[in-house]
Give the backbone structure.
Amino acid sequence: MRKKLNIFIASVIFAAILWGSISLSDIYYANVDVKLTLTNFPKGYTTGSQLPDKIKLRVKGQGWRLVSINVGPETEFRVSVDGDSGRHSINLYDYLESNRWLLSDVEIINIYPDSLRFYIERIISKKLPIISGLNLEFKPGYGLASDIIFKPDSVVVKGPISLLKTMKEIKTADKSLSLLDSRKETEVNLIWMNGFEYSTNLVEVILDIQRIVDKQFENITVEVIDIPPRKEVVLLPNKIGFNVRGGIEILGKSKPDQFQAYVSYFDLVKDTTGSVPPILEMPKNVTLQFLKPDRLRYVIRSF
């Protein structure tokens, strides 16, 4: 019985192989995505033009050949820029001969896109600060208590002159982090852009995440600055209260003398309403929620 079962299994496997061999010998149509690669740039030149990462080929050939294209190593459609700078407008059908691997046992029915336009220009380098491209979601009641720290905080960027000369910063790649409720350290790549290189592509990210709380201060004296000689200003009232928000560790250590409230004499002279809002200087990473009162009356005396 066992011998008959083994014979049956062997027969099924042989039949499957035979059927597959016969089937793969038939002619089929298929869509194949192929990586697009530009080659033979002049030394010190590149392109920042928006080009597709891959082109789509509609091909006709025997099944076994189409399978080998799809499951084998990643294939490239190589386009030479012939060591020339400036504007290029090309037809990809003109490059079939230089991609002879495509012509081996298959017929190219269609190429999409079938033409490209791009600009070859000089490479320059520039040091740029890193900014966040992170998507952060916090648990209720939590948030960033201080600015995001990047290590390094800047990178040397090499890229096409027309684009790089106007850039002020470089962004990290998109990365989502959720349910954050404590300090977090992670790594993230810089955003990929065609024709650009970085002194380092991977940066460390430090997120100072704390419970966000409010804290109230009262009876903070408001000073008047820039008072000229022989002038006196009386504020009504001359003290304010306010509510600020921030990380629990930051606000827990904050004291009244870290806050400075003032008004400028020149703002009083320019005022036409009879009252002015006080200016409040606060520690870093603290945000003001409200002032009480939010405007102060004043009297200016000369002597």
Notes: The two ends are 122 Å apart (CA to CA).
